[in-house]
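for the writeup, i need someone to sanity check this before i put it in the appendix. the sequnce is what the collaborator sent (i think, or maybe the updated version? ugh). structure was predicted straight from it, no edits. if anything looks off just tell me and ill rerun, i have time this weekend
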Amino acid sequence: MTTILQGGRRALMQLHLSEGEKRLLHVYARKDGISPSMWIRRAIYNELKRRGMRLGAVHGL
């Protein structure tokens, strides 16, 4: 989990989101009452789990 937490910003950049999409993520995060970075990390973590990837495989993010 720590590799995803540390790599959250770089992983987000790899998702190639537009500026508008990034703003939307921040809006949704505030609605949830958590910081945008935590919301994004959780989204990345859930997406990786959905794809069945082991967390160790994400070390290169």
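The CA atoms of residues 5 and 36 lie 13 Å apart. The chain has four helices and no strands.
thx in advance!!
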